[in-house]
Amino acid sequence: MTKTWASLLQPAPLPDYFYQALPSDQHIRILTLQPSTVKNAPLTGTLETISLKDPSFNYSAISYVWGSPADRAQFTCDGGRLTITQSLADGLSRMRKPNEPVRLWADQVCINQHDLAERSKQVKLMNQIYRNAAQVLVWLGRDDDGVASRAFSKIRYLNTVFSNKSQYERFLKAYSEDLDKQPRASWAPLTKLTQLPWFHRIWIVQEIGTPSTALLRWGESEIDWEMLSFVVGILNEKFHRLRMRNHIGTPNIRYLYKRFIEPEEDFDESHNRGSFIYELHRARHMLAEDPRDHVYAFLGHFSLQIATPALKSLVADYSRSVEDIFCDVAARSLIGASNLLLLSTVRNPESKDGTVARPLPSWVPDWRLGPHHIAGSPQTHHLAAGDTKPDLWIDEEQYVLHIKGLQVDTITTCSFEMYGSAFNFPRSDVEVQVTAVEKLWTSICKFVLPISLDRQYHQSSDSAFFAMAQTLSNACHGMDRLRKYISIHPDEWISHAVAYLVRASGQESTSIGLDILALNEQTPGDAFKWGHEATLVSRHKRFAITSNGYFVSGPKALQEGDVVVVLYGGKTPFILRPRTEDVGSGWYILGECYVHGLMSGEVFTKWDLIEEEFSIY
How distant, in Å, are the alpha carbons of 160, 190, 231, 234 from that of 166? Predict the structure, then answer.
């Protein structure tokens, strides 16, 4: 009888919350979170339906990391039970006010996650939801290590320094020229901040990239998004060595700033944010719980306004497979395109037997693969195929790309894969190291030391050293973004490469010719500029030479026998590999490449090449 009475005293379990269907594709649900003066009190609230066409409705939108699906919490909504992740529960507890309700939009609660059709429709509205919000409230997570206040204090201090000319100049000297003398401990909280999972979640590109103001909360601490963006922008642009020394990931944060805000001026695909495909590529370092979101998270981006007609009509559909979506996006972006940026974003790994190993056709980018530098980005001035336009068609049953172009050359010698440390400087003045430039000069180019400027490159006026330096740095296209590229004389580029070689090898090195040492004295360059650019451009790539003696920077899967082609409409040449399944059965594409001396349409004037149609599987 005791057990019976005890069971009668227990509250009845709450029924599961039942979502009512939304009345139209322009309606969303808003959560009203009830107040509590008790920090860990159960979360309760109500849902109401509103139209996005009603500008008078005031709410804040939450941006957060979902967290582990296994770590769950309960939320009571309109008397029903909703199961949410603990991460969102922590965020809602932090956003809750003690004495008044708060109106919020949080995807986990406001979208019926079990209804694929509703999820697909609501994805189209995400940009509008965050754009219309009175404020974006970012939940960075709990501050279990107690470093949030120190990290944000550091940001506020740097904001003051960077806003004052004299303070900034003193800081610049201390953390550039005298960096090795500076203690590291004070930077540890900033390192921790930039490593937080929120900064790597793909949906936040849209959530934080709108004009809405944003406030970031980490534990009990908070900071303004504009201030954080300003500080990391300066660190990112001016303090590369400081960032590297302390593992401060500012590029990931700076990348997020205003990513979804349409430019006021007219724009085309050459604009920094004007290409939908380039936006997908730029976000490859971001993480997605659902791989389909590598595409769907950008369906609200303004670049779709000028995309191909087929790409404009793309809609989210979570019933489709990842591979189907990636193939569809690739086909839509190529049909009717004015360029081959899509093919520049291809990154194909290599299996142990030398074949292309991936679940997709080789010409379809796999957005799940990590980031890599592309030479044919919208901002570069390369025109390997001149003013030609893509000439292609797609067999959509077999997903074979048939595209016209010219077969130019064959790879005969390949270097080692270059890693992120390939162009590092020695750790001390007494450390002796053979630089990557020296290794390539002797083992790949088969030139004798010392490295000098008197060896000519491929019947041109360029020296072989200049050609190598440009090949390894994508012709220095990203080195100075504050000036127009065509306004900078090539002598400036070579001065930076020379400065790097002297700094990396040492003034007393017998590997450097007297003419290079003299040039370094006459026209001092910035060694860090060239070293940094070569590191970004050449990471996980190979340097190679063709049968005609051209210098190539190509994908890490590159090997002897691969073919250099120029495809109509391409900014860069591309690397193809014959399929070995059957003789004459088509090609695989490994990716784009930089070929010094063939980046400005020279293939149409140097040789009388025969047009071919390449079938790429």
Answer: 11, 24, 17, 15
